[in-house]
Design brief:
With about 325 residues, the chain is an alpha/beta fold. The chain contains eleven helices and seven strands. The chain binds adenosine-5'-triphosphate.
């Protein structure tokens, strides 16, 4: 390449860099305004702890309160998440979503009574929050700019690719993990986060190569503990959110000791969402171990006051 060509190339690269910086600056100031607005709406409108949003027919008019919301539009969600929900044709909240999302969005721990098929997956996928991520099983190279829906928390915290593991979802079976992953892709397609599955069926070493670069892990407990023990560079020290999905089934499958070991390795300052169809003694023990003041955080259609026992909701 001659001197003139090199000079032209250098100028072209400088032009592209200036354009990218301008775009990033614009984007980040728009994002900052949006995040500030969401934080303000949540601070002003969050339901008091321990109250049941299902007891309300609608949000109190003119108050800024969002408990009682019946549609996703009424909740303080980022524009990217609202657009993805619309694209997936999700408009009305199911009962468990009406009960859990207002508290979860406010950053509170949640102990949710939710049966299979009640729509609980969106209760935990939405409250997180991200930016800049790619998607794919930990054992694949799958990617493709999307911003995820455990989205809101990490989005508001400006979580990015270099921030490491931000959210962990534990679920009893591979099939459930894959369903959750599909749902995450659906509602997170406009955010950019890296999400992966740790579910076995592949060599641990294959999963291990990508694990350190993922922001969201959806995992079965045995496989996750194996990575915690064996994968160099596995680091959960920045974890913002832990989700225990179908906790009663996880315990029925004999994973109590595995869960205890996982939780002992996670930072305490995090948000935890625990969903279970039944409230057995072992679920209550797990709630005590993993949640901050679990009695204040029970949600579900049967919930009327803190400490009230619950049963699973229908749709
Ligand atoms: N608000 C909603 N509007 C319309 N469809 C929804 C809504 N929330 C969830 N769904 C759909 O309902 C189905 C069941 O939801 P989901 O998988 O969250 O239930 P679940 O309680 O997690 O059950 P599972 O235990 O099988 O995962 C999914 O296909 C999901 O896409």
């Amino acid at each position: 390449m001659g001197r003139k060509e090199r000079e032209e190339r250098r100028k072209e690269q400088a032009k592209l860099r200036r354009r990218a910086e301008k775009h990033m600056g614009k984007r980040s100031s728009q994002e900052t305004r949006e995040i500030d607005d969401l934080e303000a709406r949540i601070a002003a409108g969050a339901p008091p702890p321990g109250t049941n949003p299902l007891a309300l027919d609608a949000p109190a008019a003119g108050s800024g309160a969002y408990a009682g919301a019946r549609t996703f539009e009424e909740l303080p969600l980022s524009a990217a998440t609202r657009a993805a929900l619309k694209q997936a044709k999700f408009t009305q909240l199911t009962a468990i979503q009406r009960a859990a999302l207002p508290h979860a969005l406010a950053g509170r721990d949640v102990l949710g009574a939710a049966k299979t098929g009640s729509g609980k997956t969106l209760c935990f996928l939405i409250p997180g929050g991200w930016s800049q991520i790619s998607w794919g099983p930990a054992h694949s190279s799958g990617s493709g700019g999307a911003r995820g829906p455990l989205v809101e928390l990490l989005f508001r915290r400006r979580w990015g690719k270099l921030d490491g593991l931000g959210a962990l979802v534990l679920t009893p079976t591979r099939e459930l993990a894959m369903q959750i992953f599909d749902e995450l892709v659906k509602v997170g397609r406009r955010h950019e986060i890296s999400a992966g599955l740790l579910i076995g069926g592949k060599k641990v070493s294959e999963e291990a190569t990508r694990v350190a670069s993922l922001n969201v892990l959806i995992a079965t407990p045995g496989r996750l503990l194996q990575h915690m023990d064996e994968t160099p560079g596995f680091d959960a020290s920045g974890l913002q959110m832990l989700v225990l999905d179908e906790a009663d089934r996880i315990l029925d499958l004999g994973f109590a000791a595995t869960l205890d070991a996982i939780i002992a390795n996670l930072p305490r300052a995090r948000q935890t969402l625990l969903f279970s169809a039944t409230q057995t003694k072992s679920v209550r023990d797990l709630a005590r171990l993993s949640l901050d003041h679990p009695d204040n955080h029970m949600v579900g259609p049967q919930q009327n006051r803190p400490g009230h026992s619950w049963t699973g909701p229908g749709k």
